UniProtKB/TrEMBL annotation:
Gene3D superfamilies: Outer membrane efflux proteins (OEP)
Entry membrane topology: Lipid-anchor
GO molecular function: efflux transmembrane transporter activity
The family this protein is said to belong to: Belongs to the outer membrane factor (OMF) (TC 1.B.17) family.
Species for this entry: Spirosoma endophyticum
Lineage: Bacteria, Pseudomonadati, Bacteroidota, Cytophagia, Cytophagales
Transport is among the record's keywords: no
Superkingdom to which the source organism belongs: Bacteria
Cellular component terms per the entry's GO annotation: plasma membrane
Name used for this protein in its record: Efflux transporter, outer membrane factor (OMF) lipoprotein, NodT family
PROSITE patterns found in the cross-reference section: PROKAR_LIPOPROTEIN (PS51257)
UniProt-listed Pfam families: OEP
């Protein structure tokens, strides 16, 4: 009677199992909060040309082979870039974990247990009555205490009936793409920083050369004024003034030397190596800036710049997290099937008659922990909004940096041209003051002033030249150049 009565139950359970499995093909689409679009200007600084130097390879933009070699070295040895690659590895592992959550977990199980049933319990009375049956003989009799041995496979599978697990997988994949953009961002920043330090070194070398040339001129001026003093044409005060100016210039040389050491050490750190001399190419005065520099369109900036692309990926992932948080309010369906050998005697465990199989499906819906789920949902929404504002800020920063660098190139080009004229005039004035001083038509203060003016003007011209190249590097980085 008992086996006959169980047949309808088996059919009912099988039908229920098939129904629950069919639910796994369903997916409830959750409404994500609509985020406002980020408005972009039509062009940069009035230019509507779609060509951009951000697409140029660094070998094309930077004509100095020494600089290109330094950048290549940094891209293979820089610690920050290596850390970025490890972040990609972690993101890939997270994506694989999220993919695995969609599949059932299967475990090989070898388990043993024992139960002693009380005399006045359902199992105790049932087992006692079963052992009195004429059909139960020998190894089939149930001992008390009753061992329980199992050798086989057990599985647990949460069916993704609401798309929660697939959304988690999508969020993990989007964050994987964001980590790859993060690596590109490091490459772009590294390229720009190496170039910045390299041009800084060239500028410092030029400053050091200018200072040395002026030291030589000032040393001859000191010798001349000493001759003038011996002839009674000037006083000791003039000698002291010329000497003080020479000492001041020598002190500048020491400061520039230290700046060179600092810049070389910073550059070596980016290259992933200990301090050593940096090989330089042409002087900064001989380096050429491209005659035509184009920035393209702001719409291209959004598609190329790595930090903007990374922020966009993070925003997408944050929006998907909201759908996951919404699905947490809905019931989750879990199946726990098993198959293997099950017996209460070790000697009968591997008998084909001991093969057992079954499956249990259960729905679990949150009731008392809804405050926790509401809190998680609120956090997800807030993170999504934060990601949007970060995305908006990144675009604003990118557009501002491009415009600043473009204007800087134009303005510094004009400044450099005027400073070249100023240096030419002041050099002529210094020569004239020396001649007039020798012939007694100019005072020593006029000579000192002329010499100091030449030195300051020449150093200012080098600084402007450096600013031109830094604007070029800044524009290249701001346009997302160098990572392809």
């Amino acid at each position: 009677m008992v086996p006959y009565l169980n047949k309808p139950k088996i059919g009912y359970r099988l039908g229920l199992l098939l129904f629950l499995v069919s639910l796994s093909g369903c997916r409830v689409m959750h409404t994500l909060p609509k985020m406002p679009d980020v408005s972009l200007p039509v062009s940069f600084a009035g230019s509507d040309d779609s060509t951009t130097i951000g697409r140029l390879p660094r070998q094309t933009l930077f004509a100095d082979k020494n600089l290109v070699q330094l950048i290549d070295t940094a891209l293979t040895q820089n610690p920050d870039l290596r850390m970025a690659l490890q972040r990609i590895e972690m993101a890939q592992a997270s994506f694989q974990i999220s993919r695995g959550a969609l599949l059932p977990s299967v475990n090989a199980v070898a388990a043993a247990g024992v139960d002693r049933y009380g005399k006045y319990t359902l199992n105790g009375v049932g087992n006692f009555d079963t052992n009195l049956s004429e059909n139960i003989v020998g190894q089939s009799r149930i001992p008390n205490p009753t061992p329980d041995f199992f050798l086989g496979l057990r599985s647990s599978w949460e069916l993704d009936i609401w798309g929660k697990l697939r959304n988690r997988r999508q969020a993990a994949y989007t964050r994987l793409l964001a980590s790859q953009e993060g690596r590109n961002l490091v490459v772009t920043a590294l390229t720009g920083e190496v170039a910045r330090l390299y041009y800084t070194l060239l500028a410092l070398d030029a400053e050091l050369e200018i200072i040395r040339e002026n030291e030589a001129l000032q040393q001859r001026a000191v010798e001349l004024v000493n001759v003038q003093k011996a002839a009674g044409r000037v006083t000791e005060l003039a000698v002291q003034q010329f000497t003080a100016q020479l000492l001041n210039t020598r002190s500048r040389e020491g400061g520039v030397r230290q700046e060179i050491v600092d810049a070389e050490n910073q550059l070596n750190t980016l290259l992933g190596r200990y301090p050593q001399p940096i090989v330089r190419g042409q002087s900064i005065e001989d380096q050429k800036i491209p005659a035509q520099i184009l920035a393209g369109l702001p719409s291209q900036l959004v598609r190329r710049r790595p930090d903007i692309r990374q922020a966009e990926r993070e925003l997408e992932a944050a929006n998907v997290d909201i759908a996951v948080a919404q699905a947490e309010f809905l019931p989750s369906l879990t199946l726990t099937p098993y198959v293997g050998f099950n017996a209460f005697r070790v000697s009968s465990l591997l008998d084909p008659a001991s093969i057992a199989a079954g499956a249990i499906g259960g729905l679990a819906a949150p009731i008392f922990n809804r405050r926790l789920l509401k809190g998680n949902y609120t956090i997800s929404v807030a993170r999504s909004r934060e990601a949007y504002f970060a995305y908006q800020k990144t675009i604003l920063t990118g557009v501002s940096e491009v415009v600043s660098s473009l204007k800087g190139l134009d303005n510094y080009r004009n400044v450099a041209e005027l400073q070249r004229q100023e240096v030419a005039v002041l050099r002529q004035a210094a020569t004239t003051s020396n001649e007039l001083f020798v012939n007694g038509y100019a005072t020593y203060l006029e000579v000192i002033t002329a010499q100091r003016s030449v030195l300051d003007a020449e150093l200012a011209l080098i600084e402007t030249k450096r600013s031109q190249f830094l604007s070029l590097v800044g524009l290249y980085r701001a346009l997302g150049g160098g990572w392809e």
